[in-house]
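Re: the multi-chain job from yesterday

Posting the exact lines I submitted so nobody has to dig through the queue logs.
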Amino acid sequence: MNNTASRHSIDQSHAVEDTYPSRKGLSSITDRQDPVIYAPQNSTPPIDPSQIEQFEQQGFIVLDNIFSSAEIEALQDESARLRSTASNDEQSEKAYTEPGHHEVRSIFSLHENSTVFKKLMMDERLAGLARYILNDQVYIHQSRLNYKPGFIGKEFFWHSDFETWHVEDGMPNMRALSMSVTLTENHTHNGPLMLIPGSHKKFIACEGKTPRQHHLASLKKQEYGVPSNEHLSMLVEKQGITTVTSKPGSVIVFDCNTLHGSNGNITPHPRANVFFVYNALSNKVAKPFCEQPPRPEYLCARSNIKPLTSSRSF
Amino acid sequence: MNNTASRHSIDQSHAVEDTYPSRKGLSSITDRQDPVIYAPQNSTPPIDPSQIEQFEQQGFIVLDNIFSSAEIEALQDESARLRSTASNDEQSEKAYTEPGHHEVRSIFSLHENSTVFKKLMMDERLAGLARYILNDQVYIHQSRLNYKPGFIGKEFFWHSDFETWHVEDGMPNMRALSMSVTLTENHTHNGPLMLIPGSHKKFIACEGKTPRQHHLASLKKQEYGVPSNEHLSMLVEKQGITTVTSKPGSVIVFDCNTLHGSNGNITPHPRANVFFVYNALSNKVAKPFCEQPPRPEYLCARSNIKPLTSSRSF
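And the result, structure tokens for all chains:
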């Protein structure tokens, strides 16, 4: 009996090979094993080919002027509506607050809470680009509205999203990308997104283990799955830091493994964005690559996964 | 007897009028009562007259290229020496550490600890400009070496230095200025100094009282003497925020009442500067405008005050 149970357990955990082991010992840095652009050479991209090349080399691009003023206003209105609803429901597990404060910092599962944002994530201008880069059908691994208030906005330390999605969600490969649609102006001074260009081509395995219910703390302030200062310094030394400043309605597209973070914000200017993670259908999550049970469905879509259908406009 | 004691006490506390009451009730905003530039009209400034005008209007200026490369290197070496000495003496009341960490954040009383920095504060390029703007002999109210480490640098919330020096030190009027000599590069992303242009022409009285031994906490993270979010928003709305980026060896000169602050720093790039407060000899501190005893001498020079003599070079 024990043998059978054991074999069964081994079958499950080894169904997908762990190409990117992390939180299994000391911090280390290795090369990326996966492509960045999955689209066939010589295929026609939906945006300027130089932007695709930039995405390949730097791990991110910023798309400006793809939404009309009316569209941007509609997104801002919807964000305000969701935040005021979430404030009345502070205990909701899908609404995370600022450490030590009651301001709502993140609202998840936007497709369940908002028709406007559901249409936005299906919009061809976003989903079509994701399908092109990943060369596959795509689905939403996670969606959220992020709000970093003025005066008390806390920092987010450097991290690769893929490291967490791989270890804690069981995402097999680097075949996913994020799109952040800005809803407020990003100045240099209000805690804008910072990225390390080229960092997506390396994988930093992190020290430590994954504690139980890690997501309850890590979404406020991450302490595990954090790259070492030495490896961060090495990458920044070589490639610098890019700070994204932009008007409302810009789209920051970044690879799942691009190292990013943001400083706090003591200015009166809040920051808000909608954040979608597009994953290739062929890259669906399996068993987590750690000893913890899977994270909740609103952080990692797992059951009943269907590819996004095409949509012209939200 | 009681009457005499009481009259004596009244005499002391009312020797200097409290022109800028703060921490006595609700937050409020009033006009500055003092000049910004004390130099007589039509006098010849030691720097470009347009910079003096900018100082008058904005409350700060940045002087570039006033030190040679060799001088900058000497200042950087001296900073490294002082930090390594202070690290061995963590318990020193003159060395403040980062909240929750052991990195040295501030070292005070530089004239006692360092011949190099003592000469720097007397250097005509700095002290001469202070004498011109304040139109008086000057002395050093406070001096410190600030070090904001990479990765864990914490924010400093918005404040007017004068508000603290007035309430806690008994500095009568706005006739003082600060000079910050940068020792590392200030990028937009490593928690550089932010200032609100024009804010020096208003005085924001802060809410709350002054707790006992406030400086032990306030130098790490200020919770009293903090302007209200409403008044900050109002000033920023009108006048914006200026972020100072600069090379090592730049000098940021700002009025004692200019609102300033800085965000945290998750990047690998540390920030260091030497900070001198020049006060007009005629504006010497008196009894604090609060119910607490004076702060220690290393935060506020009080006894045995002598004006700086002129010096050509450090």
